[in-house]
C-alpha cells in the first residue's frame, strides 16, 4: 500500500532528512518505488523504481539540505507497473506543483481524456498524474495554490490521501477521502503521513484527518478545513507507541492488523466494479476478454481454496469449471486448448508452482488470466489478462485479507464469465465490507480460542461454498498454531475421519443460509455431537444448528457468497487467538515463506 510523508519546518531541520527517515519507516507497508519532492522557489523531484535504497543511493542529498518543505512517497502499483516514470511525486507540465497520492482515482480515465484533449502530455500510466495537471490548469487560469488544489480535489471520484507542494509557496496542501492521513505536531514544524510511523521519531502528537477534510501546513501553523472551506476544530492526541509498535498501527501482530484491514480491502476490491442500481459488474481490466469454457483454476495453498470457491460459483452459474493444485497441473494430461480459460490465482503473482502451470497453459494455447494482488508480477505480465484484487500489501506469512479479496474478485469474475443474473450477488457483495466490520466488532473468537486451546486437534467442516472455507480454516489453524487441524467436506466425515473425532477434538461447522446443503451439514453436526465432540457453529442463524452446538460464532444473515467471506473471518480470528495463547511466532511461522518461488 502506498505511503505518504510530508514536512514543513521552521528551518531547524532539513526536509530531506525527515523525508528519508519517513520513507524508510513506511517500507513495512510494502512498495515497489519511492520518490521525494523538495520545494524552495523551485521543485526538485527525485524518484526511483525498486527499493528505497535505490533512491537513497542516487539522491544528491547534500544539495537538498537547507530546504525545509517537502513530500515523499512509497508507491505500491495499482495503475501501471513499477517504473521510474510511474513513481510519485508527479508534477504538472510546468513543474509548478508536485503531488503524492494514496488510493484510487476512479474517474481518472475520463479526466485523463479531458486533459489530453486540452493538450496535456502525460508522462506516466498512473491515475495520480491527473491531479497535478488539474492543479496546473487552475494555476494557469490564475488561481492561487490553495484554490487550485481544492478545485482539483473536487473533481476526483474514489479514494485518496493527497499531498501537494508548490514551487511558489512554502505550504503543503493535503486532503483525505477514505484513505488515512495524519498530521504530526512538532516543535520544529508540521508533519504529515499516511501512517504515524513515518514521523514518530520526531513527534508523538498527532491530529487525524477525517474524510472530506483538507489541511494546510505552513511553517507557523496548521489549519484543517471541511469541504466548504470552513475551519474545523481539531483534537491533538498523544500516541503511546514505540517505533516498532507503530509499524503495526498498535496491533500486536501484522496478522491481526491485516484481518482488521479487510473491510477496507474489500471496499477497494469492489470500487468502481459494481453498480448497485443496475446490479451489474464491470471489470475494466477484462474488457476485451471473450468468455470461453471450460475454466480451469490453478493455485496453491490459500489461493487454491479461493480458486475452489471461484470454481463453485462458476458451476453454480452454469459454467464448467475445475480447480487444480498448481503443482499437480499437467497440460499434457488435462484437456486444455484454445477454448480453455486458465485462471491463475496467486496473491504474490510469483509462486513457482502456479507460474509453471500458467506457462504450460500458455504454451497449450489457452487464454490465461492472473487474479493477483501484485501489479507487474510475473503472473500479471505473462498472462493474457490480469484482474487485481487490490488488497494492499500483506506482510504476515499467513494469508488473510488477500483470501477475502480473492473471494470477492473471483465472485466478480464469475459474474463476468456467465450470463446468469448478477442481481443477488451484487447486492450481497455491496454489504460485505460492513458485515465483515460487524464480525470484527462483535466476534467472540478469543473466548472460544481460550476454551479450546489445549485440544488434541481441530476439525472444520462445510459444504458447497463453505467447503473451501473449512479447508482454509484448517490451513490457517495449522500454519500459525502448529496444531493438527483438518478441513473436510461435511458429508465426508462419516466416510473415515469420524474415527478421529473425540471429546478433545472441537469441530467447527460452517452453516450458512437455510438451503439443502446447510440442512445436511446440520445433520452432520448432529452425528459429531452424538460422539461427544465439542461443536462450534459458525453460522448466520438461518438453520437450527445452534441447538446442537456448544459454542456459536455468529455472522450476519446473507447468502452463500457473503457468508463464506464473513465465516472465514471468524475462523481467521480463532486461529489467531489460539496461536496467541500458545505464544507462537504468528507473523513468521516456522518453516514457511511469504512467497514460495521454488517448485
Ligand atoms: O502468493 P500465492 O497466493 O500464490 O501463494 C500461494 C500459497 O503459498 C499461499 O496462499 C499460502 O498457502 C499462504 N501464505 C497460507 O496462509
Structural description of this entry:
This protein is an alpha/beta fold. It has 2 domains: 3-245, Glutamine Phosphoribosylpyrophosphate, subunit 1, domain 1; 247-431, Glucose-6-phosphate isomerase like protein, domain 1 (Rossmann fold). Helices cover 34% and strands 22% of the residues. It has 18 helices and 26 strands. The protein has an 8-stranded antiparallel β-sheet. Strand 22 (458-462), helix 16 (467-481) and strand 23 form a beta-alpha-beta unit. Helix 10 runs antiparallel to helix 16 (467-481). It is globular. 55% of the residues are buried. The structure holds 5-amino-5-deoxy-1-O-phosphono-D-mannitol (M6R). 5-amino-5-deoxy-1-O-phosphono-D-mannitol is lined by residues 300-303, 346-348, 351, 354, 397-399, 479, 595-596. Residues 300-303, 346-348, 351, 354, 397-399, 479, 595-596 line the site of 5-amino-5-deoxy-1-O-phosphono-D-mannitol.
Amino acid at each position: 500500500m502506498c505511503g505518504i510523508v510530508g514536512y514543513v519546518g521552521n528551518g531547524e531541520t532539513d526536509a530531506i532528512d525527515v523525508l528519508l527517515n519517513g520513507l524508510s519507516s513506511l517500507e513495512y507497508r510494502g512498495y515497489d518505488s519511492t520518490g521525494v519532492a523538495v520545494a524552495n522557489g523551485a521543485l526538485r523531484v527525485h524518484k526511483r523504481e525498486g527499493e528505497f535504497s535505490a533512491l537513497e543511493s542516487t539522491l544528491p542529498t547534500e544539495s537538498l539540505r537547507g530546504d525545509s518543505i517537502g513530500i515523499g512517497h512509497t508507491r505500491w502499483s495499482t495503475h501501471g507497473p513499477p517504473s521510474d516514470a510511474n513513481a510519485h511525486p508527479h508534477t504538472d507540465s510546468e513543474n509548478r506543483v508536485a503531488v503524492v497520492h494514496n488510493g484510487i482515482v476512479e474517474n481518472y480515465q475520463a479526466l485523463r481524456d479531458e486533459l489530453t484533449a486540452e493538450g496535456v502530455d502525460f508522462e506516466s500510466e498512473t491515475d495520480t498524474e491527473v491531479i497535478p495537471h488539474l492543479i496546473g490548469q487552475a494555476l494557469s487560469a490564475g488561481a492561487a495554490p490553495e484554490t487550485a488544489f481544492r478545485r482539483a480535489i473536487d473533481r476526483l471520484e474514489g479514494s485518496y490521501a493527497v499531498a501537494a507542494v508548490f514551487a511558489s509557496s512554502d505550504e503543503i496542501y493535503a486532503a483525505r477521502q477514505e484513505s488515512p492521513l495524519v498530521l504530526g505536531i512538532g516543535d520544529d514544524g508540521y508533519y504529515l503521513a499516511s501512517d504515524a510511523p513515518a514521523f514518530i521519531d520526531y513527534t508523538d502528537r498527532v491530529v487525524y484527518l477525517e474524510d472530506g477534510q483538507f489541511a494546510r501546513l505552513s511553517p507557523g501553523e496548521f489549519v484543517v478545513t471541511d469541504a466548504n472551506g470552513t475551519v474545523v476544530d481539531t483534537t491533538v492526541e498523544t500516541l503511546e507507541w514505540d517505533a516498532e509498535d507503530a509499524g503495526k498501527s498498535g496491533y500486536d501482530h501484522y496478522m491481526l492488523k491485516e484481518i482488521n484491514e479487510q473491510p477496507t480491502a474489500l471496499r477497494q476490491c469492489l470500487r468502481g466494479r459494481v453498480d448497485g442500481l443496475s446490479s451489474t459488474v464491470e471489470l475494466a481490466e477484462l474488457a476485451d476478454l471473450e468468455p470461453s469454457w471450460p475454466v480451469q483454476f490453478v493455485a496453491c495453498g490459500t489461493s487454491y481454496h479461493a480458486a475452489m470457491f471461484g470454481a463453485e460459483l462458476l458451476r453454480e452459474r452454469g459454467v464448467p469449471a475445475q480447480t487444480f493444485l498448481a503443482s499437480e497441473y499437467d497440460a499434457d494430461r488435462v484437456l486444455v486448448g484454445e477454448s480453455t480459460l486458465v485462471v491463475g490465482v496467486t496473491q504474490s503473482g510469483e509462486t513457482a508452482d502456479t507460474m509453471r502451470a500458467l506457462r504450460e497453459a500458455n504454451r497449450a494455447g489457452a487464454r490465461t488470466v492472473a487474479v493477483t494482488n501484485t501489479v507487474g508480477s510475473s503472473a500479471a505480465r505473462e498472462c493474457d489478462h490480469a484482474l487485481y484484487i487490490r488488497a494492499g500489501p500483506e506482510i504476515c506469512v499467513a494469508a488473510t485479507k488477500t483470501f477475502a479479496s480473492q473471494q470477492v474478485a473471483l465472485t466478480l469474475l464469475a459474474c463476468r464469465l456467465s450470463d446468469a443474473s448478477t442481481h443477488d450477488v451484487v447486492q450481497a457483495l455491496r454489504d460485505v465490507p460492513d458485515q465483515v466490520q460487524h464480525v470484527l466488532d462483535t466476534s467472540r473468537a478469543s473466548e472460544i480460542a481460550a476454551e479450546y486451546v489445549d485440544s488434541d486437534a481441530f476439525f472444520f467442516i462445510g459444504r458447497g461454498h463453505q467447503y473451501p472455507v473449512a479447508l482454509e480454516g484448517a490451513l490457517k489453524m495449522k500454519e500459525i498454531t502448529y496444531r493438527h487441524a483438518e478441513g473436510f467436506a461435511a458429508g465426508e466425515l462419516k466416510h473415515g475421519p469420524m474415527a478421529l473425532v473425540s471429546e478433545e477434538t472441537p469441530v467447527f461447522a460452517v452453516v450458512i443460509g437455510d438451503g439443502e446443503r446447510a440442512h445436511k451439514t446440520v445433520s452432520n453436526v448432529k452425528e459429531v455431537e452424538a460422539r461427544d465432540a465439542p461443536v462450534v457453529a459458525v453460522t448466520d442463524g438461518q438453520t437450527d444448528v445452534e441447538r446442537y452446538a456448544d459454542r456459536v460464532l455468529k455472522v450476519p444473515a446473507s447468502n452463500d457468497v457473503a457468508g463464506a467471506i464473513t465465516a472465514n473471518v471468524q475462523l481467521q480470528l480463532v486461529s489467531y487467538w489460539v496461536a496467541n495463547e500458545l505464544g507462537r511466532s504468528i507473523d513468521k511461522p516456522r518453516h514457511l515463506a511469504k512467497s514460495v518461488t521454488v517448485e
